[in-house]
Structure formats: C-alpha cells, structure tokens
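Let's practice the habit of predicting before peeking. Look at the sequence and jot down your guess about where helices and strands might fall. Then scroll down.
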Amino acid sequence: MVPNLAAKRIIDIDVVIESMEYLPWVIKNLDELGYVHEGDLGIKNREAFARKTFIYLTVVRLCKARRSSIRTQ
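Done guessing? Here is the structure:
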C-alpha cells in the first residue's frame, strides 16, 4: 500500500487464451501459484479463480480470445 495514493484494493487479472482446450493447463498452473478454480460463475466462456490465501483481494478471469468476451469484463 502506498500512503496517500488513491487506488482500489482489488487487483484484476484477465487471462485470454486461444482455445478452451488450454483450460486444464491454466487451472493446474494457477493452482501452483495459489489460485483455486471457481468455474464459469454463470458466464459462458469465462472462468473465475480466487486466491487460496488472503493476501490482498485479487480477481482473475480467464476467457477465450474473442473480442466480445473481452469487452464484457
């Protein structure tokens, strides 16, 4: 945290992949980095991940490379 710096306390990370075929690989690698896969949370072609331990609030979204998917984030 930087004193007197106005910023939100949430870090958003968007991961875009060419194909959902890579999803198992991404899930495995994000798991090793401390993130748990939460599923699509009701939004097709988008997957959510959450931190296993709370250090700071981080939101990770993964979506298939499609302009409309990226625009809705």
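How did you do? The longest strand covers residues 10-17.
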